[in-house]
Design brief:
By secondary structure, this protein is an alpha/beta fold. It has 3 domains: 76 residues, Alpha-Beta Plaits (2-Layer Sandwich), CATH 3.30.70; 243 residues, 3-Layer(bba) Sandwich (FAD/NAD(P)-binding domain); 191 residues, no CATH class. Strands 14, 15, 16, 17, 18, 19, 20, 21 and 22 form a 9-stranded mixed β-sheet that branches.
Length: 538
């Protein structure tokens, strides 16, 4: 195959236009093109009067070798693909028991998938419910405002990313093909083919639910076993190595002991009780920096027209944005988890503590755009010391948010936020919210420096997106679960200081978002497969 880069076409081009452009670029006749495949698609909107798609295309043509010998175009080269290879232990130590994956978010799912595919028959323990039951619990919470701390937006099959946008972009350099492997697995189990090549791929909450269920069915077909409503409460060790997990069945309260010599900690960023147990058991952990802020809403039409221009906005999917600012006080302010055409959601997981997130469906056809605008915080900001100081900081903000909203999501217009007065009504557009909400004094939520940094960031962003800081921009709080406040340290083998326990993914402090967590799950599976052989089934 021949790879052509930086191929521009109008946003309303046809397949015939594509073939004509390919032939013209290669200086051949269209009938000489045998096949082509889109490798990457992005949007160039720098000129609003001429918004275009920019492609990287792999093309198969007649007399390909001869063409490449004569080619002098720097944008044309032989196609080179990274072929993912999963390792296997040559003289690996046999496991006595099936490996246990604790958590079924992206890290846990993809670790389990690769291990199951290669004969390890993993056991997956998930404190929350399976997807269909979890969806009913979450929708009931949004409708009735009665939280189930065991199953919610944070806990249950698929992890916290399920009730988000299903965004699959990552800044990690994919030198081993793991990123491509993750995307291919998603597509194989029902995700749209376009995620393979889109520059900002997403699945959407609605489609992601079905994809996750399909992946689970494949893991089970390969010999994996899921246990939902099952929370790991303790661990047993002997001579520095894992011996067993102590589990509680969430509904019955029954305590069971599961012997195992290997467990993967893919617990997610909100398993605070598990963090406490791990600290009590002597795991090496440390507090880490993260970010906190508020979810902001604007009319999606405004964002799309600003990004693409009025004409192109009518033809393209809802526009996104990515904004960053570095302030003189040393803080960073940036947009996070941007959801075009989406909804703000109540994402709480603990009683009398309130957190928000953003969510989009695949079509991204909601009236508003939302994203978290967050301010960096470090251990120096925490009121306590120790590995769980960041957890305590999160909880303090969530307790304030719960009180400010009297148990509902507190909201405030940005103009009132700056004037430090409670809003009494929306401005030119209403909120798109999943869950009960009310107006509250969000300006009282943060320490003064974080409050000031948030305001400065909003005004700086308006330089790039006009009216981003308009007075009727809707704020909702608190956005506190941006990433794990804890890192569970691991060595080169990916093991913790306790042998047989593998910290993995976002909750352990080694990822941020669906893709990086999934890739870390794959890397963890690789380390396990390189050191061990699958247990023999009797």
């Amino acid at each position: 195959m021949i790879r052509i880069q930086q191929l521009k076409l109008p946003i309303d081009h046809t397949e015939k236009d594509m073939l004509h452009k390919l032939a013209k670029t290669l200086k051949i006749k269209p009938e000489e093109i045998l096949n082509y495949q889109i490798r990457r698609q992005s949007i160039d909107a720098r000129r609003k009067q001429n918004v275009s798609f920019v492609y990287t295309i792999d093309v198969e043509i007649k007399h390909q070798e001869l063409f490449l010998k004569r080619n002098k175009n720097a944008r044309i080269s032989p196609a080179k693909d990274i072929s993912y290879q999963f390792p296997s232990a040559i003289d690996g130590q046999p496991l006595k028991h099936s490996p246990v994956i604790i958590g079924s978010g992206p890290a846990g799912i993809f670790c389990a998938y690769l291990l199951a595919e290669h004969g390890f028959c993993p056991i997956i323990l998930e404190r929350g419910k399976s997807m269909d039951e979890r969806t009913r619990e979450v929708e009931q919470f949004w409708e009735k405002n009665v939280l189930n701390p065991r199953t919610n937006v944070q806990f249950g099959e698929g992890g916290a990313g399920t009730f988000s946008d299903g965004k699959l972009n990552t800044l990690i350099k994919d030198v081993c093909g793991r990123n491509q492997k993750v995307l291919e697995i998603f597509v194989r189990h029902g995700a749209p083919q376009s995620i393979i090549y889109e520059s900002k791929p997403h699945i959407g909450t609605d489609r992601l639910k079905e994809v996750i269920k399909n992946i689970r069915r494949q893991i089970e077909a390969w010999g994996g076993t899921y246990f939902f409503d099952t929370c790991v409460k303790d661990m047993e060790f002997s001579q520095g190595r894992l011996q067993a997990l102590i589990c509680e069945e969430q509904i019955s309260g029954k305590i069971t002991r599961r012997e195992t010599d290997l467990a993967v900690l893919a617990i997610g960023h909100s398993a605070r009780d598990t963090f406490e147990m791990l600290l009590h058991r002597g795991f090496q952990m440390e507090a880490k920096s993260f970010a906190v802020g508020l979810r902001v809403e604007h009319p999606q039409e405004m964002i799309s027209q600003t990004q693409y221009g009025a004409e192109a906005a009518q033809k393209l999917a809802a526009a996104s944005y990515k904004l960053t600012a570095n302030l003189e006080n040393g803080r960073g302010v940036y947009s996070f988890c941007m959801c075009p055409g989406g909804y703000v959601v109540n994402a709480s997981s603990e009683n009398e503590r309130l957190a928000v997130n953003g969510m989009s469906y695949y079509d991204r056809d909601g009236k508003n755009a939302n994203s978290a605008i967050i301010v960096t915080v470090t251990p120096a900001d925490f009121q306590e010391d120790g590995p769980l100081a960041g957890v305590a900081f999160q909880r303090s903000l969530e307790e304030k948010a719960y009180k400010l909203g009297r148990g509902m999501v507190p909201q405030q217009l940005f103009g009132d936020f700056e004037k430090k007065k409670v809003s009494v009504s929306y401005g030119s557009f209403p909120s798109e919210m999943k869950g009960w909400h009310t107006f509250g004094a969000l300006h009282e939520l943060f320490p003064e420096e974080i409050y000031e940094s948030f305001c400065q960031g909003m005004h700086q962003f308006a330089r790039y997106l006009p009216d981003f800081d308009q007075e009727d921009t809707i704020l909702s709080g608190v956005e506190s679960r941006t990433s794990s406040p804890v890192r569970i340290t691991r060595g080169e083998s990916f093991e913790s200081n306790w042998k047989g326990v593998y910290p993995c993914g976002e909750g352990a402090g080694y990822a941020g978002g669906i893709m990086s967590a999934a890739m870390d799950g794959i890397k963890t599976a690789e380390r396990i497969a390189a050191a061990f052989t699958a247990p023999v089934k009797h």
